[in-house]
Specification:
Blueprint lengths: L1 H17 L5 E12 L4 E8 L2 E6 L5 E4 L7 H4 L7 E8 L4 E2 L5 E2 L1 E13 L4 E2 L5 E7 L3 E4 L5 E5 L19 H14 L5 H14 L9 E12 L3 E11 L5 E11 L5 E2 L9 H11 L5 H8 L7 E3 L4 E5 L11 E3 L6 H6 L23
Parallel strand pairs: 3-8, 4-8, 12-13
Antiparallel strand pairs: 1-2, 1-5, 2-3, 5-8, 6-7, 8-10, 9-10, 10-11, 11-12, 13-14, 14-15, 15-16, 17-18, 18-19
Helix pairs in contact: 5-6
Length: 363
């Protein structure tokens, strides 16, 4: 990853230097590869409806902006319709397009691979075909007119990111069991549904040229641990609409020795029913109707122990008519709250050693 970042920085530096020379920088989509006996030595690309020729030399630097491909993807013509940024000087000898016409041609000094086609198109419920491409952020979904509808921020498709910590904090076998569990769960959102929502709003707005693509992002990381358990939180960012994003949190607790998931309610001395009722009382900013509504759906996935106390993150769609989400929870300084916690909960430690330990509250 570090090497790929360094190469991209080098490529960008070369592009900036090109601005001070006779070279020109152009974005386009490759429409045809031209080969020598061994590899691609030129290609035609389309830019704003015009065809441009690009010649490669032994000195041409090719820099993929994507995580899982190399320069060989272009030299071996592995993907049709590759999107690239080309910097080069005008060549004296022009290339010839399929219709026999000579086209403006440049000898490339730098080529950045920006995106490639990925997998099969997505067919929406109304029959619309949505093209899928892989760019430097992850998978992107495009309307028939080329407008991006959804950008998934996950550089390696289908890779479920789960934070890894030192084996002294969490033994290798137990940690791998948790990672396997999250990989089995997969993504906490439906990609096709997000594209459908984006497509619907795009049409409702009249297909504007400045449409802001929906986003989807997911990561799972450790938060705190103690002698018995370790806490994980999955953060999911999705678009509420083209103007606003929202986050959802899915918290879980695992046994540090076995990697088995344990109930969040086991952190408390009273039973689950008592704690549910107690928590609802603490949510006084919500009126009685909202708390009654919440009582039916309150999930331990919304609860976590952090540096300051108990965090309660109620997703916005629980109360869709509100501005939401509602975020709150009692602090450790609240003596009644800490008296309900098991004695073994403290101290809490940061598995990455960044945040201070959370000691047992003093009376």
């Amino acid at each position: 990853m570090k090497k790929r970042t360094w190469l991209l920085l080098l490529a960008l530096a070369l592009l900036l230097m090109a601005g001070c020379s006779s070279e020109k920088t152009m974005d386009g989509t490759i429409t045809e590869y031209l080969r020598s006996d061994t590899e691609v030595n030129a290609f035609l690309m389309e830019q704003d409806g015009k065809t441009i020729g690009v010649r490669l030399t032994g000195e041409t630097g090719i820099y993929p902006a994507l995580v899982d491909i190399t320069d060989e993807a272009l030299r071996n013509a592995e993907y049709p319709h590759m999107e690239v940024t080309v910097t080069g000087e005008k060549a004296e000898e022009k290339l010839t397009a399929a219709d026999g016409t000579d086209v403006p041609t440049y000898t490339a000094s730098v080529i950045i691979i920006n995106s490639i086609p990925y997998g099969d198109p997505l067919i929406l419920e109304d029959g619309t075909t949505v093209q899928v491409r892989l760019n430097r952020e992850g998978l992107a979904y495009y309307a028939p007119d080329g407008m991006m509808l959804l950008q998934i921020h996950n550089q390696i498709p289908d890779d479920i990111f789960v934070d890894r910590v030192d084996f002294d904090v969490f033994p290798k076998e137990a940690q791998q069991k948790v990672i396997d569990h999250y990989e089995e769960l997969g993504f906490f959102y439906d990609t096709a549904y997000q594209v459908e929502r984006a497509w619907a709003e795009y049409n409702e707005l009249g297909c504007p040229k400045d449409f802001r693509a929906y986003v989807a992002r997911q990561s799972t990381a450790t938060s705190y641990y103690n002698d018995r358990v370790i806490f994980y939180c999955t953060n999911v960012t999705l678009s509420r609409n083209t103007r606003r994003n929202y986050e959802k949190y899915y918290n879980a607790v695992y046994d540090r020795k076995t990697g088995e998931q344990v109930s969040f309610w086991s952190l408390f001395k009273p039973d689950e029913n008592y704690m549910r009722q107690w928590l609802l009382v603490q949510l006084e900013p919500l009126d009685a109707d909202r708390r009654n509504q919440l009582a039916e759906v309150l999930s331990p996935e919304w609860l976590s122990l952090g540096y300051y106390g108990l965090s309660i993150h109620i997703p916005w769609d629980v109360f869709p008519d509100e501005e939401g989400p509602f975020i709150g929870g009692p602090f450790y300084s609240y003596e009644e709250f800490t008296s309900l916690l098991q004695d073994w909960v403290f101290p809490l430690k940061d598995p990455h050693g960044v945040s201070p330990d959370v000691p047992a509250p003093t009376a």
